Fold this sequence. Notes:
The protein has helices spanning 7-13, 19-23; strands spanning 31-36, 42-49. By secondary structure, it is α+β, with helices and mostly antiparallel strands. It has one domain. The protein has a two-stranded antiparallel sheet. It is a single-pass membrane protein. GO terms for molecular function: energy transducer activity. Residues 2-54 form the TonB C-terminal domain.
Amino acid sequence: MAKMKGGQKWLYERLKYPDRARKAGLEGRVRVQFIVTGKGDVEDARFIRGIGGG
């Protein structure tokens, strides 16, 4: 099974919490779908479901 370069640490370092959502106190989960290539690169990332607010 392919593994993403940098793992979850890489992903968490790139998360962006929209200012509007933060100011409104919005919290929740988002669903993201992506492909991890055999080299560990992420391709075709897209949001499946967001929480809104930004």
